[in-house]
Every structure is written in C-alpha cells, then in structure tokens.
Amino acid sequence: MSADFSRLGDEVRAVEKAGADVIHVDVMDGHFVPNITIGPLVVQGLRKLTSLPLDVHLMIENPKRYIEAFALAGADWITIHAETCPHLKTTIKKIRGLDVRPGVVLKPATSLKILHPVVEDLDLVLIMSVNPGFGGQSFIPATLKKIERLRKMVDQCHDPVEIEVDGGVKIENIKDVSAAGGDIFVVGTGIFKTENYEETIKRLREKIG
Known about the structure:
This protein is an alpha/beta fold. It is about 35% helix and about 15% strand. The protein has eight helices and seven strands. Helix 1 crosses helix 8 and helix 2 packs parallel to helix 3. The longest helix has 12 residues. It starts with 7 loop residues before the first helix and ends with a helix.
C-alpha cells in the first residue's frame, strides 16, 4: 500500500533486490476498512514479477468468498481478520486446503482470547499495531505487551506459529517489536518513503540482530 502504484512492478523489484524477504499485499474493500486498494488481478501480476512469497492481508468483509481467487492468483500466505470470520476454523482449513499458509489478523482492540480455539491450526498471527485502513500511522505502544502475551501463547503450540506485526514499524522501534516477540515485520512507509531501500533494510536488520 505504501509503494508508488504508478510503478508498482519497479517498486517490488527494487525491494526484492534490496533484501526484503516477503512482499506484503494490503487488500481493502472500503467496507471493513474505509480505504480501497487492490484485488486478485494485481496479485496475479505481482506473482510474475517476484520469486518472494506474497503475503496477502485481506482487510475485507466475507474473506472466505475470495480466498480461492487470491490463492489462484499466486498468494503464498493469506491472512484473514478474526473480526470478519464467525467460522474461523473452517476458513483456515479452506486456506490450507489450497496449499497456502493461513494466518489470522487481530486489530488493536481485539483480544487474544479469540485465538484460543484456532491457534494450533495457524502458521502465523498478524498483530495490527495501528488501526487498519491507511499507511503512515504511528505505532501504538500498547501493542508491545500484546505481542509479549501472544509470544507466550504460541510458544506452547505443538507446531511453530510465527508472529507478524503490521503498522508503524520502522528503524526507531523495530528493536522493541522484535524483543517483544515479533518474527515478521511489515514495513511500508518505513521503507518506501526512504531514499535508499537497501540501506534502510540493512539498518532494520541490524536493529533486530
């Protein structure tokens, strides 16, 4: 979402060359969140441009309806919001059945308790550290305690569950996010609004050790 959409392909190639591990794709429908971004056709186009995993974050109502379309378009990971899925376990099973890594996303105000019935079925949990919908927001400091609690929860799982953090992550705070228990860091404006992507990613890596 933070890339220059007039040259999206070039932006993806540039961050891949600069050392990014994953391409995070923000999908918004104007209903669950007030913004509108992209759909499966753009994911299909991105799939042709990069060998990196495509991490598709569905900030949409009724995500189950669109999971297959995004999987066929080339998504490697699909994360769905717990707030939009009354039948989380069924939806997670559908994602995995399409040979895609399933994840669940929690908004800042959503309790970790909602994960208890499904955490063992997941590959990752995405914690929003801003309210979803727009890039460039400031990291919510209370998120760090939430990540710490989640770290304790997933460390008890039989299979590894990764913790992804999205929203306001940048050079100044990524060390704290990592120390709290984060594994995967979504950095939007913290990379795309800098002059040298390679240098920025290098500095981000240095902060997390």
